[in-house]
Amino acid sequence: MPKTTLDSPTDPAEGLAAAVALRRLAERLENAQVERAMAEGWSWPQVAEALGVSRQAVHKKHAKRLIAAGVELRRRDR
Amino acid sequence: MFQRFVADARDTASLAQEIARRVASPTIEAEHILLALAEGRDAATQAILADAGLDPEGVREALERENERSLAAVGVSPHAFDLPPPARLVKSPRWAASAKLALERSLKVASARDDRRIEPSHILLGVLEAPVGTVPRALEGAGIDRAGLARRAEAAMDLAGHDGVSG
Questions:
Q1: How far is B155 from chain A (nearest CA, A)?
Q2: What are the residue ranges spanned by the domains of chain B?
Q3: Residues in chain A within 8 Å Cβ distance of B26
Q4: With contact defined as beta carbons under 8 Å apart, do B93 and B26 qualify?
Q5: Computed over its alpha carbons, how large is the radius of gyration of chain B?
Q6: How far is Cα B65 from Cα A71, in angstroms, rounded to an integer?
Q7: In the prediction, which pLDDT does A5 show?
Q8: Which residues of chain B register pLDDT less than 50?
């Protein structure tokens, strides 16, 4: 059977650099998807629960940016 | 931190911050300092970098390849899905550990040379001294001899007659 999994990098330099690059990518993905969810009318509690973080955390991290980007937020949950 | 920096060196630091903001990075990293040196107004450091193929486009290319290579090591392709352009920042990017280390190293380089003032070339040497991390990996991936580049930067400083007094 063909091998479908990758070995974890054996060189720490490769593995650590991968962790750095994944962190950058995860950050961008989170920003984009939170923006999309809020633009589609999700509430902060929903986004927080989907991300597995507290409502305060997600609000603190994203609210200002989304307001600056002109995303209309659901007023009740702001 | 910036008291001993000459105007061009301060410009390099603020340009690094501007570049971090431009690419929507919440932190200023060593690679943003390298980009600032490549883009910056200090002709001497810019020429040394450009001679090694590190004009701004060359640096960006090397960093992009490093990012792709790092992700590929764990089976992730940044091109596998469409990400919108990075969201814009509302807060000023803050100095990250990699950038602080580069600046600290530039101070050490100056001390070792008895140079009282920090110039862009000291910052370049500080950035090039990092043994591990994004910048050395990007340079290695682009086939650039980091030590050789540092030697050329030092030779250029010696030629320019940095005697530690005139600054």
A1: 30
A2: 7-78+88-159
A3: 27
A4: yes
A5: 16
A6: 33
A7: 66
A8: 164-167
CA distance B6 to A19: 36
Which CATH number describes the domain made up of B7-78+88-159?
A: 1.10.1780.10
Q: Which residues contact B65 (CB under 8 A, 6 or more apart)?
A: B138, B141, B142
Nearest residue of A to residue B89 by CA position?
Answer: A65
pTM of the model as a whole: 0.89
pLDDT of residue A76: 55
pLDDT at B66: 97
* pLDDT per position as a tens digit, A27-75: 989 999 999 999 999 999 999 999 999 999 999 999 998 998 888 887 6
Residues of B in contact with A24 (CB under 8 A): 67
Nearest residue in chain A measured CA to CA from B72: A18
CB–CB of A31 and B132 under 8 A? no
Phi-psi region at B113: left, alpha or beta (left = phi > 0; alpha = psi -120 to 50): alpha
pLDDT digits (tens, 9 = 90+) for B14-45: 999 999 999 989 999 999 999 999 998 899 99
Q: Decide the pairing of beta strands B27-28 and B94-95.
A: parallel
- β-pair partners for B5: B118
Residue A47 DSSP SS3: helix
Nearest-by-Cβ selection for B71 from A15, A16, A21: A21
